[in-house]
Design goal:
Elements lengths: L4 E5 L4 H12 L3 E8 L11 H15 L3 E5 L1 H17 L6 H20 L4 E3 L5 E4 L5 E4 L17 H5 L1 E2 L7 H11 L20 H6 L7 E5 L4 E5 L23 E6 L4 E5 L7 E7 L3 E2 L8 E6 L7 E8 L2 E11 L6 E6 L2 E7 L2
Helix pairs in contact: 1-6, 3-4
Length: about 350
């Protein structure tokens, strides 16, 4: 029997380490790959060097070959440039979703296939199933609170065909238990946080590296000036922290950004402007197959949000989604993911 070759994205965190171990136990020929995508001087926020060190330890522990891949230039062009460009247009991007579709499951996958691997594997918490027509279906993980299918919502059939998610049927506690039982070097390491490959940074400071200040007024829903901002592109719909507005009884949130006037509008959480039941997308990405319209769906506009009932129609060249209940802080540039049962069927960037 010829073993299938798998290149595991060994990130330095416990999920990918256990994934590599499970693939070994399942009789795959396993090697490890580490992506160097971003390096910053401040190692307290950027963990690339530490991740690399731990990933090497894991590979040595599992007795598997270890390779590094330098995508710093490509990551800057595909992800960092996209972040800065969209914020300058007053749009809030979702880099974690596109980091998967454009880097992990594109650059890394293409590299692996070019090296004659059959698959890549990651430690994502999602499930993958193939039907009798050889169509691959992306499914939620068993724990909906930590399901990561949302972050994989822009993957295509080719990417899914050559991908494995070995821990898709395990609880997080089971993953930790396996890591401890076999003695993995990173068994006790806390989960990663922050922006994909960049780490946990002060996002305003991060944007200030490329986007200069552009001061303007902060006004409330009555039109009263309540403060000043340094640039509306630094803020996100629904944001509370960082407004620097004191002396108020109720906390204020960003409810609208008027780019042409350089004005930031704020209000209380109860303000109707913060809630809406309609969003539009100029285009949709279908993971498996396209459906007829209109159709009832479940959808989420952010990671870890509970599924929301909505209907879909196509009108005047736009996909229009109407939620049964109003949603808080629908934000342009963010990703909306659509589900039929446990299957993620489509996704789109919110207009």
């Amino acid at each position: 029997m010829i073993k299938k070759k798998v290149l595991v994205w060994l990130s330095g965190w416990v999920d990918s380490a256990v994934s590599a171990y499970l693939l070994q136990q399942a009789w795959y020929e396993v090697d490890a790959g580490f992506m160097v995508n971003y390096i910053a001087e401040d190692e307290s926020t950027c963990t690339t060097k530490k991740d690399l060190e731990i990933a090497k330890e894991v590979a040595s522990f599992l007795w598997i070959n270890f390779f590094t891949f330098d995508y710093v230039k490509e990551y800057e062009e595909k992800i960092l440039h996209y972040i800065f460009e969209w914020y300058q247009k007053w749009i809030t991007p979702n880099p974690d979703v596109f980091c998967n579709s454009e880097v992990k499951f594109k650059l890394f996958l293409e590299e692996a296939l070019g090296l004659w691997y059959d698959y890549i594997a990651t430690g994502h918490y999602a499930k993958l199933e193939k039907d009798e027509k050889n169509i691959f279906h992306l499914l939620k993980w068993i724990d909906s609170g930590k399901d990561q299918s949302y972050f994989l919502s822009f993957l295509n059939q080719f990417q899914l065909e050559h991908s494995l998610f070995p821990i898709g049927n395990l609880e997080k506690s089971e993953v930790r238990e396996i890591a401890k039982k076999i003695g993995l070097p990173n068994a006790e390491r806390k989960d990663s946080q922050g922006l994909c490959f960049v780490g946990k940074v002060d996002f305003k400071e991060f944007l200030e590296k490329k986007i200069p200040h552009q001061k303007g007024n902060i006004i409330d829903t009555s039109g009263k000036k309540v403060g000043e901002h340094e640039g509306v592109f630094y803020y996100t719909i629904g944001q509370r922290k960082g407004l620097n507005i004191g002396g108020l009884k109720d906390p204020l949130f960003v409810i609208e950004k008027q780019a042409e006037k350089n004005i930031l509008i704020v209000g209380t959480e109860k303000d109707l402007e913060l809630y809406n039941n309609i969003l539009t997308c100029s285009s949709l990405h279908f993971v498996a197959e396209q459906f007829e319209f209109p159709k009832s769906w479940k959808a989420k506009i952010r990671y870890r949000q509970a599924d929301q009932d909505c209907t879909l129609s196509f009108e005047n060249g736009k996909y229009i989604f109407r939620f049964d209940e109003k949603q808080r802080a629908i934000t342009s540039g963010q990703v909306v993911a659509f589900y039929l049962g446990d299957e993620l069927v489509a996704s789109g960037v919110i207009d």
